[in-house]
Specification:
heterodimer, A: 112 residues, mainly beta, seven-stranded mixed β-sheet, four-stranded antiparallel β-sheet, B: 113 residues, five-stranded antiparallel β-sheet, 0% helix, globular
């Protein structure tokens, strides 16, 4: 069974640009969550989608948004990039609530 | 916000020894999960323990959960060089509408050959 796939693995963007990251969950998983990992703040929850609906949202500005498609694949978008958005962005999928969350390899975003 | 606190922040032991990491959290939870991360790569799922469970085993891993103390521990027995990594606990709060998973800051484990 294929794991969680995130693309691209690495990105370099310039301040003010926008970026879209993609996540394909494990087949059959309907819940997809996104996390940001930085050395200073650690792992922070961004948002979670289940069956195309956003169920939970973390404490991030509106520049961070996401969506989920009918095939459970998810994208997150960051607009007007800032230097502080440089981070490892991780996606996780799970079968349902109270089940294991499996993570992808992440997308390393560098904003210059 | 970080709910979990992990202790110690760093641990260095000899190969073959056992490693114990602790995690404390603040709110009621549905489950607690442990993860391993190598050098800023993705998180590898190790084990999930639910709030009504007290202990789980998986290979060389043993996890305990004490909901009265809001704490958990991860024991790795007979450590190997390949166990060198950062280990994170993550809690799934039972509060409706709460964050999906809340992570601790992690324990950096180094296994010396």
């Amino acid at each position: 069974k294929a794991g969680v796939t995130q693309t691209p693995r690495y990105l370099i963007k310039t301040r003010g640009q926008q970026v879209t990251l993609s996540c394909s969950p494990i087949s059959g998983h309907r819940s997809v969550s996104w996390y940001q990992q930085t050395p200073g703040q650690g792992l922070q929850f961004l948002f979670e989608y289940f069956s195309e609906t956003q169920r939970n949202k973390g404490n991030f500005p509106g520049r961070f948004s996401g969506r989920q498609f009918s095939n459970s694949r998810s994208e997150m978008n960051v607009s007007t990039l800032e230097l502080g958005d440089s981070a490892l962005y991780l996606c996780a999928s799970s079968l349902a609530d109270d089940y294991e969350a499996f993570f992808g390899q992440g997308t390393r975003l560098t904003v210059v | 916000s970080q709910q979990g606190e992990e202790d110690p922040q760093a641990l260095s032991i000899q190969e073959g020894e056992n490693a114990t990491m602790n995690c404390s959290y603040k709110t009621s939870i549905n489950n607690l999960q442990w993860y391993r991360q190598n050098s800023g790569r993705g998180l590898v799922h190790l084990i999930l323990i639910r709030s009504n469970e007290r202990e789980k085993h998986s290979g060389r891993l043993r996890v305990t959960l004490d909901t009265s103390k809001k704490s958990s521990s991860l024991l790795i027995t007979a450590s190997r060089a390949a166990d060198t990594a950062s280990y994170f606990c993550a809690t799934a709060p039972s509060i409706q509408g709460a964050q999906k998973l809340v992570f601790g800051q992690g324990t950096r484990l180094t296994i010396n050959p």
